[in-house]
User: What shape does this take?
Amino acid sequence: MTNNPLLPLRDKITALDKQLLELIAQRRQLSTEVVNTKIKANIPVRDIERERILVKTLIEQGKKDHLDEMLIKRLYQVIIEDSVLLQQRILQEKLNINTIKSAKIAFLGPKGSYSHSATRRYASKHFDQLEEFSCSSFKDVFEQVENGTVDYGVLPIENTSSGSINEVYDLLQKTNLHIIGELSLPIDHCILANEQVRFEDIDTVYSHPQPFQQCTNFLENHPNWKIVYCDSTSSAMETVAKLNQPNIAAIGNKDGGELYGLQVLERNFANQKENITRFIILSRKAIEVSDQISAKTTILMKTGQQAGALVDALLILRNHNIAMTKLESRPIHGNPWEEMFYIDMQANLDTITMQQALKELSSITLFLKVLGCYPSDNIS
Assistant: This one.
């Protein structure tokens, strides 16, 4: 049998990849040393100008080695984001001293759901051990945290394709829990089946309503498929695995498919290729956020029904130079035609500017509540 002529070249590439990983690990270690220095000197984590100069310098260097500019930009966007989030995490751990190395976290659906993936990702950054609690509804997640059964709840709040998750916003009206973090998870929808089958042999597809809503363009190409709604993508995959029939499939994620022994027929077919879900982390206790990192504050308010009431409230934020990143309105149940407004702001709750803005908002609104202040997960 002749030797594969590619093997020596592949071995060299593998050796270089190992060296790259070692260098990335060394860079992360330096980031740890950098943040410790920043803590002592009270220097902000982000230095936007330094980041721009670094990327510009690397692009110029890459041109000499015939490397594509976009490749360098994308590569260092990921590396810088990892470095910033690592430094933020270290700062927060020192500020909110917590000796607990394990956590109980509730999420929607059985194991294998996107919420389960987000839970594991969050826990991997903050805890050594994780005890997982799957819930059948968003309300159940809230209740598990409120009654102390778990320490945290992970809930999807919005998606770049299908928009806000209204049920979660409605439940935030009634809770005393605090938002202590956020997490953005790329969503890669897959068609999953028990075996490799042709699309024309499939007649029924199971999933949560959200993926169906996010994949309408793809589903239009298969008008004969019967759509069956489930409580979560994981329950859809579990159902397909248990039924074990060649004519059924589920829309879910690759990791969940592997968990239930399903095979990927096709992937990444959402209407928007940049399909990202933002999750929030809920806790019974609020946290303090360092003034050295980028923070978000989320509030809930009710304005009067007079003309310009909402505009007057938003002008207060503008006058204090507070950037609003999200504005969501939801009806108040039991009060027809009245609404609550949810506002995400790029600001730290403990700053003088933010406290003054809240004081002014309180004077012109009928109801105002801070839902949480937490580190921003969006590194632009």
